[in-house]
Design brief:
Order of helices and strands: HHHHH
Radius of gyration: 23 Å
Strand content: under 5%
Oligomer: single chain
Structural class: mainly alpha
Number of domains: 1
Distance between the termini: 48 Å
Shape: elongated
Number of helices: 5
Length: 121
């Protein structure tokens, strides 16, 4: 056997490592929605707190929770989503947004969906 690498062996080696190299580069190429996902978890917690609080029984706690939820929705709306999980978080924010900012939340979600659909086309 020759110590030199044959063309066939080189191609076989490249074929074996190409998927791994592509997969390793993929997260950087598509982006990372870690911050959005973390905010989504906080939004779920805020929603659970609000669902348990009776505004008539504890108005101060209710106002605090509503303010916290609104702040989370504003932050989620401001961050572009680049993955399906990020889009899920934004959709949940639109669903929870009962304030006048709902149009802004919805527009942000739709902009991200359209941007991703355009990139996929």
């Amino acid at each position: 056997m020759s110590p030199e690498l044959s063309r066939r062996a080189a191609l076989a080696g490249l074929a074996a490592i190409a998927p791994a190299a592509t997969a390793a580069a993929l997260p950087a190429a598509i982006g990372d929605d870690a911050e959005l996902i973390a905010l989504g978890r906080q939004l779920e917690t805020a929603a659970a707190v609000l669902d348990k609080i009776n505004a008539d029984d504890d108005e101060d706690r209710w106002e605090e929770a509503v303010t916290w939820e609104g702040h989370l929705i504003d932050r989620i709306t401001a961050i572009p989503a680049v993955t399906i999980m990020g889009l899920r978080v934004k959709a949940c924010a639109v669903e929870r947004d009962t304030d006048v900012g709902r149009d802004t939340s919805l527009k942000s979600l739709l902009d991200d969906i359209l941007r991703q659909a355009g990139a996929a086309a």
